[in-house]
Specification:
4 copies of one chain form a homotetramer. Chain A is built from 6 helices and 17 strands. With about 325 residues, the first copy, chain A, is of the alpha+beta class. Chains A and B meet through strand 1, helix 2, helix 4, strand 10 and helix 5 of A and strand 1, helix 2, helix 4, strand 10 and helix 5 of B.
Chain lengths: ~325, ~325, ~325, ~325
């Protein structure tokens, strides 16, 4: 079940970075939703490397091909399958026997018995193409309900040498969320958001509203009190109380570690446990930012679309 | 589905704070596991209020009653149902028409149409009794596999006045986890842990390993490199790489906001939107710590037990 | 997952026949549904043994106790937990070492390692109490939507000697089902009904509409054609086409084998594989009919309530 | 969720008959399984129309293309995606406005608002291509465990005129199933088989072992008693007792209605409710047999593979 996300609005995806294509099946999207193909491709373009100095220079103009579920630009209510071809399938044979530090090499060997890095293609950032496509469909559904998601750096990036990589902190904001989304107890809205965010490669932390700062606050400083008209006087809770949206802006921050591959040579070992050196190349990104922005937004959209359908279901 | 947690090892629970009992059904626990009833009750005792100055003084000696699934102290492979009676069912009628700030009152009204606080009994901390009982069973399963979970304050608590409450930061550590637990892509081990932690009342943040600090690190500072014998030289990843356990200690931190109810009077509104004052009493805890420790451990245990069974399933 | 039925409207239940109680948790029932307790107990009474000559004479006046999820006779939207106490817990120690033919003894030994019949208490017909309680709640939800379920013998029972048992064939009819319930492909309405019916103890067959007779029909004889006003001219499909309700009466038949326990002595073996004799007593029913009627209706109701909520979810 | 089948071994598929391709994603297949591509294509060939007088004469030499999850003929443990191109996408525009009797036209209009037959492409028999591909992978997994599935007509077909269609009854047999597969209560092995079979287009009935005949048997005639060495003396239960495999041959029968489309003109209505005539052509099959055989076997294989993995999971 590791390759499906969502309960009612669901994405199941596939594809190794070294394969011919990545793609997926979106199930549960209601019939009759207008699909703006340009919007979907624009989301993919936001994820693609630009000439930004932090991102890889590799040319990768992804474009999605829908195989089912859409006719005359409208969803049919049937599963929406899509493919995005992989352009650059030349395997990195030089490094294929080397355990990449803080990456998938070792754990995939332990879990699946793979003895080279081919098998860990599923852990590649290439997989996020699927998240972005599914998220774009979810965003179109949310837009019909007046919900809008944006994201940006939460703090300036620390300067970093050209042969190294840096982490990043991203802030996501969601406006227009009605009250009542989210389920009490286990499927709290914020719990699902944390789940969604930590499922993104390199994510190491999540905080909602005041987040970690809340640990040092007094209740009298923290509480989001309401006044007449049910208006809130503050938003330390980040728009979610008791796991359920309260109608305020939802905002949260996600921390990402530095990308584990960089040009500066690293002492490591190979799959036999022998000393080896691993070095990336100029094609590797130096920070998850800015390419991660459409990914965090996509995962946010998937969570919210799912809860929107669940709220529908809860009618007597 | 909001009241079920887990895929193969699962808890479904129930119970309002104002009802006769809370309880649940644990499904998927293999047959033949020895159940140490004293251990389960000891976990409940850790969750119960002590004479600690931060916790409520209410007398609450919970004890669990198993209704099924165990015979002669061994699991049968059938669902394990349990009940924990509620002692103190006298409803807090004074405050029942008041919207408690940063609590469930408002969102439950919006979601379910409740017009008083009775309906939000499911959001009460009382529900964590169920997590602790299910987590205790999971811990017993994990112990057979050499896995041990501990937790403690991650930083000293900020001093706080007696009529107010404070937040807390808790660090969880798991030793003995074999390599290979967790599923790639969406059901990453750390994603499920984040989900589990944020599902706990008052949790506002989660970070694994170096966590938010990772956002300010260079790749060359951060990476957990391995040397001969596959030995790791550091543990910034907190024991999880690419969503899968790497055999090192798993550790993470959870941030909790101050408990929203305290004795100092708060200006708020009632369910009709009219101004009102809300004040707690001496029975209310002043910090989630220390009672939250068995709860975070229980949720950790549920996540790991689930992945342990999933790893079994993945055999050819 | 073997102890949960349903996707959005779900029952998770527990309890061995030799334990103190059976019970369960109904999750996903919308808030605000009026619960008629008399109706639930009346359904249980229909399941209880009467003075009917085919049913056991044991006194078993079950009554349900709701522990949560209902307040002032209305559902809260929280999980509805219930208990039904077991009256007659005196274990049948005489036969406890004997493998009961065509029963659970052997397979539970093989699956769970049980070496007596205590462990197979979950396979007891006593479990159907839980189905009936959950089904009664589902029926109340369906009634609000004008859906009514009835059942009866589909054919007269074959005469049978007093120390033996007989099978039965039951016909279920559902009126008032709107068009559009059921999901295409795998979660067809009829597929879920078949699943629900075959999950009942002793069920050996299911047929919808013309059923097995359809195998011998020509298309021109079989097809349910429509005329002006979309009116149907026949109902060989039994109210479901392409997995989706078409607004006609839904009807299907379920075949049950004879109850495997009867008074006439049977040659069998014990758990060590040694020859043994097994004989039931006068407390054992001689046919699943009529007590199975509320059970087949309950499972039908659970399937339909689930699809009703799923249809809600599918709104754009 | 209507487009996913299975819990641990899962297929999610997509594709309308009028689209470019059908395909799917198989998730949960363990790593290291040898995939014999010829075998998969041979299964597709069994499903394809032959020169058999009952099947359509349309040329349709399907061949599967795997996009991920397999490398050097072995599964990687990652999702296995596949595509099968549609050859004959020329839409049947003549009949596109006509409600096909006993078909999907009417119910899809009611459920999704489609006003022609394009939208019901998901209900086409073309979808079974996906079942056969996924089932072939499942069969390869089962073969490693010594499990073999076969099927055949259960009774001779009734003669039928050349412009009409006929139903069929198919018997499925599974040999080599170990004891202990299946879960008690709701996920009984036979319940999941009934679910799987009734999810196939045109299926109207399912019976296991003695099936409907069991309704007319006495317990003393029916029971499958065991003798020394736990050997069974009969198999009226069809290899499943209390929902769990008992090590005997598993056999069951599935009834299919006549294919609803045939050449003889049918009086029907169009999507506006006006009288219309519908007639098929020589490309339409006249019976689900023999092409349904690989489909029933595939669904059987999916059920068994799922339970095989679930049994693994249940280890302490």
């Amino acid at each position: 079940m590791s390759n499906t996300f969502g309960t009612l609005f669901r994405i199941t995806d596939f594809g190794e970075s070294h394969g011919a294509a990545v793609g997926g099946v979106i199930d549960g999207c209601p019939a009759g939703l207008e699909i703006d193909l340009d919007f979907v491709n624009e989301e993919l373009r936001r994820r693609a490397p630009s000439h930004d100095e932090l991102s890889t220079e590799r040319h990768e103009p992804d474009s999605v091909k829908f195989l089912s579920g859409i006719r005359d630009s409208k969803t049919l209510g049937t599963p929406i399958a899509f493919l995005v071809m992989n352009r650059d399938v030349k395997a990195d044979s030089t490094n294929n026997q080397v355990i990449k530090p803080s990456h998938a090499s070792f754990v995939y060997m332990e879990k699946y018995g793979h003895e080279d890095n081919y098998g860990s293609g599923r852990a590649s950032a290439r997989q996020t193409v699927c998240r972005v496509v599914a998220g774009a469909i979810a965003k179109l559904l949310l837009k019909r309900h007046g919900i809008e998601i944006t994201s940006a750096l939460a703090a300036p990036l620390r300067p970093c040498p050209p042969d190294d990589t840096i982490g990043a902190k991203v802030r996501v904001s969601v406006c227009g969320v009605p009250t009542g989304l989210g389920e009490p107890v286990y499927d709290k809205l914020d719990a699902r958001l944390a789940y969604a965010m930590l499922s993104i490669n390199a994510a190491k932390g999540f905080e909602l509203g005041a987040g970690f700062h809340a640990a040092d606050m007094l209740g009298s400083e923290y509480n989001d009190r309401q006044t007449s008209g049910f208006k809130f006087l503050s938003n330390n809770d980040g728009g979610v109380q008791a796991g359920i949206s309260n109608g305020q802006e939802i905002f949260f921050t996600v921390a990402f570690k530095p990308i584990p591959t960089f040009r500066r040579p690293q002492q490591t070992i190979d799959f036999n446990g022998q000393p080896a050196v691993y070095e990336g190349n100029s094609r590797n990104d130096r920070c998850v930012y800015p390419r991660v922005l459409p990914v965090v937004e996509a995962m946010t959209a998937l969570v919210l679309a799912d809860f929107l359908l669940q709220r529908n279901a809860n009618q007597i």
